[in-house]
Design a protein that fits this description.
The protein is mainly alpha-helical and about 50 residues long. The chain is built from three helices and no strands.
């Protein structure tokens, strides 16, 4: 998650104060889904992009 934290801080997508919230949210999201569900989700998002 350090890469994600660095990305948020570098791009200034959110304020530095809110970075821990977003990192925690994404961590919980990844922990909720198993790997098969995650791969399907990511592939779907990549195709739509």
């Amino acid at each position: 998650m350090q890469n994600f934290r660095d990305y948020l801080e570098t791009k200034r997508i959110v304020t530095k104060k809110r970075v821990p919230y977003y990192v925690a949210w994404v961590s919980q999201f990844f922990n909720y889904f198993d790997k098969n569900q995650m791969m399907k989700f990511l592939l779907k998002k990549l195709k739509s992009f």
